[in-house]
Amino acid sequence: MRFFRQDLHTLAGAYALDALEPGSELTRFNRHLSRCQSCASEVRGFREVATAMAFAATTEPPAEMRDQVLAAVARTRQLPPEIRTHVRPRRTWGAAPWIPWLSGAIATAGIVLAVLFGFAQAHTQNELNQVRAQNQALAAAQARVQTALNQAREHDQALAEILGAPHVTLLSQRTTKGGVAVVVLDAAKRQLVVATSGLPALPAGKVYQLWLIGPVRIVSAGLLPTAQAGVTTPVVATGIVKGDKLGLTVEPAGGSKQPTTVPILALPLPV
Amino acid sequence: MNPNDSDASRFRSATADRRGERDLDDLLIHVARGDQAAFEALYDRMAGPVYGVIRRVLRDPSQSEEVAQEVLLEVWRTAARFDPAMGGAATWVTTIAHRRAIDRIRSTTAAAEREHKSADVSPPHDEVAEAVEASLDRERVRRCLESLTEIQRESITLAYYGGHSYRQVAELLQVGLGAIKTRIRDGLIRLRDCLGVS
Fold first, then answer.
1. Distant-in-sequence, close-in-space partners of B70: CB < 8 Å, separation ≥ 6
2. Is residue A99 scored above 60 in pLDDT?
3. Which of A119, A139, A163 is the last residue of a domain?
4. Mean pLDDT for chain A?
């Protein structure tokens, strides 16, 4: 055990350089980091080294990029700050112990997570009311997802089950065509929920199809629903086996038996 | 930057010092409150390092520009999630940039494209650097990298600028996994001391 810890500790360098591959090692190190003060401060120092390396690589970006970014900024809504635990007592989240970690990752995945987050947190009307009383801003956000939530939960027992599972892994990755896929993985039950945000709209007659891409076989995991305001409603996929990646391709309407185009996403699923 | 914009000129002095980490932190705090002028000032300070590090990793200029735009927009969108206790604004921004570049190469098609475009994995030569005026950072980092052992230097450059995982680095350098982990960490400790990072 001692050796194991030591071994984990030496990963601080690779971790700070983003050189750990997604999967169990990264998950383990992240967990270790939340408990190991000296590792956290070492990583902080190493990240500053990495920052100096980034500054050393400074390159003048194309001139038009500035206007494009500033124009995008002018029409992009900012995420609200994370509400810290003192305004939301932990017991409120008792049903979903992964929420604190999820909220840390929420920055990367934006609105998709906001949707999943909403699904997960409003487990009972009672809890929702408690939170609402505590924090009006949060309550407003919840009100927006509540309708969608109730509908989806009624229709989709499987979805509610995964989002409420005690140990889940949150994964997110950009697709090569832009947009992001967010996955809540219940490794124990080998199932997941996936939602996407900001995928490019497809021409008529084309759909996005999800796949479980394994070392020996590729199986369809269903079609992505049409996006509402850029966000697709969560889709459940089950029967994940070790080595599977979650893939996404563009297929003719109705989907294909096997992928016919190059995946725009191949997200490893640590089960 | 619009010279008539008083908000922008308020931050102008901040750009005077080379890194001015604390000023960057302040800028980011203003950005979090929706201050677009502060974002412009932040852009002028950070777009170079953001684009530069992404370009080092991805190499392809148009992909790099795309990812850099996404990163800078993410900085705007998530500025309220910046926590100064976890490290400075410069570190926060460059960490996002590097991670997004890595995300991009880890998606399969991008990886294939990249291999097609550049099969070599040698530390990047300075086609990019030539276009940029020499900076103190560059000189300092170069000097400190030189103080490392060859294997430490190669592991760190392949991992950070090359965007390789430590497993890939081990493969490229034909060194065991345990040894690579140690070399990267030891090298970073030496760099940290050389660069005077607290």
1. A174, A178, B100
2. no
3. A163
4. 74
* Burial degree of A33 (CB within 10 A; 0-12, 13-18, 19+): middle
List, for residues A205-237, the tens digit of each pLDDT value: 899 999 999 888 888 998 888 887 777 777 888
Asked whether A160 and A153 are in contact (CB, 8 A), the reply is: yes
CATH number at residue B29: 1.10.1740.10
Q: Are A57 and B135 in contact (CB under 8 A)?
A: no
What ranges in A36-174 are assigned the alpha helix state H? 37-56, 64-74, 99-121, 125-134, 136-155, 157-163
Quote the number of domains for chain A.
3
Spatial contact of B109 and A264, defined as CB atoms under 8 Å apart: yes
Q: Do the chains contact at A59 and B52, CB–CB below 8 Å?
A: yes
Query: Are B159 and A19 inside 8 Å of each other by CB?
Result: yes
- CA-based radius of gyration for chain A: 20
Domain endpoint, select from A135, A163, A191: A163
Residue A63 lies in a domain: no
Structure tokens at A84: 């810290």
Band (pLDDT 50/70/90 cuts) for residue A75 is: very high
Q: Which helix (H) or strand (E) holds A235?
A: strand A235-238
How would you list the strands of the sheet with A169-174, edge to edge?
Answer: A169-174, A180-186, A191-197, A235-238
The angle at the Cα of A149, spanning A147 to A154, to the nearest 5 degrees, equals 105
What's the CA gap between A266 and A268, in Å, rounded?
6
Taking an 8 Å cut-off on Cβ atoms, the answer to whether A13 and B184 are in contact is yes
Asked if A14 and B159 come within 8 Å (Cβ–Cβ), the reply is yes
What pLDDT shows up at residue A160?
A: 66
Q: Is the pLDDT of residue A37 over 50?
A: yes
> Which residue in B55, B81, B169 is closest to A107 by CB distance?
B81
Most confident region among A190-194, B127-131, B141-145 by mean pLDDT: B141-145
Do residues B102 and B138 both lie within one domain? no
B101 and B10 co-located in one domain: yes
- The answer to whether the CB atoms of B39 and A70 lie below 8 A apart is yes
Please compute the mean of the pLDDT values over residues B12-18 and round it to a whole number.
34
Query: Touching check for B92 and chain A: CB below 8 Å?
Result: no
Give yes or no for a contact between A197 and A213, defined as CB atoms under 8 angstroms apart.
Answer: no
> In the predicted model, what is the mean pLDDT of residues A52-68?
94
Partner-chain residue, chosen from B49, B110, B131, that has the shortest CB–CB distance to A54: B49
- Number of domains chain B is built from: 2
